[in-house]
Amino acid sequence: MAVDTTRIAELTRELLVAIGEDPDRAGLRETPERVAGAMAELFAGIGQDPEEPLRRTIDVSRGPAPETVPTGAVLVRDITFRSVCEHHLLPFQGRAHIAYLPADAVVGLGSLARVLDICSARPQVQERLGEQVADAIEHALDARGVFVMLDAEHQCLRTRGEKRPDASTVTVAARGDLATQAARAEMAAYIIIGEQNKATTGVKGRDA
What are 148-194's pLDDT values in tens digits? Predict the structure, then answer.
């Protein structure tokens, strides 16, 4: 079901009136349509199948030598994402680190980011978002293990209520062989190494 931008624009106009504003003043005249467009983008993942980007696989079981079959994890670090908290409809954004242990097939690295894009483009909570990404990868690829770490900043925590502007939230979802304590520690170590390399080479991170 597509986002109903016409209705969103109408409701946004009502919202402006409800907060005591004049939706016809110059600065707000086009706001309902702008909000509708933003909502269509932010919630484009509703109704989409997060496994769809994983259906085009690359068979690595027929390499020139047996050692071409992957034995270790594939880890993509620092995938930026943004979503909307379903409790207050305020944004949260951060970085994801996604790893999986392939079976006989792998996917293009961008496919992992696309799974995250689909799952995050809907009203979410961070804890569920990581689990949905892990489930999609495990199921679609028959992966031997999956590890998903999300590190995000929530505007509902930073700008309202407790008002903790420096707080960030880290969640982990793990499946199969990457769910063991040793495997989790190994994945975390790779992520830390990436952060250290950035600091050494002067690559700017999220908070630079």
Answer: 999 999 999 889 888 888 899 999 999 999 999 999 999 999 999 87
Q: Is 145 helix (H, G, I), strand (E, B) or coil?
A: strand
Cα distances (angstroms) measured from residue 86 to each of 101, 117, 155: 31, 16, 12
pTM above 0.85, yes or no: yes
Residue 152 falls in which region: left (phi positive, over 0), alpha (psi -120 to 50) or beta: beta
Is the Cβ–Cβ distance between 120 and 129 less than 8 Å?
Answer: yes
Closest by CA to 124, choosing from 93, 145, 168, 149, is 93
Q: Is there a binding annotation on residue 85? A: yes
The residue assigned the tokens 């016809």 is 24
* Cβ atoms < 10 Å from Cβ of 138: 20
* Annotated binding-site residue? 88: yes
Tell me, what DSSP letter sits at residue 104? S
Domains and CATH numbers, the chain: 5-41 (no CATH), 60-201 (3.30.1130.10)
Spatial distance between the Cα atoms of 66 and 145, rounded to a whole number of angstroms: 21
Give exposure, 54-69, as e/b (b: 16+ Cβ within 10 Å): beebeeeeeeeeeeee
Q: Check whether 119 is labelled as a binding-site residue.
A: no
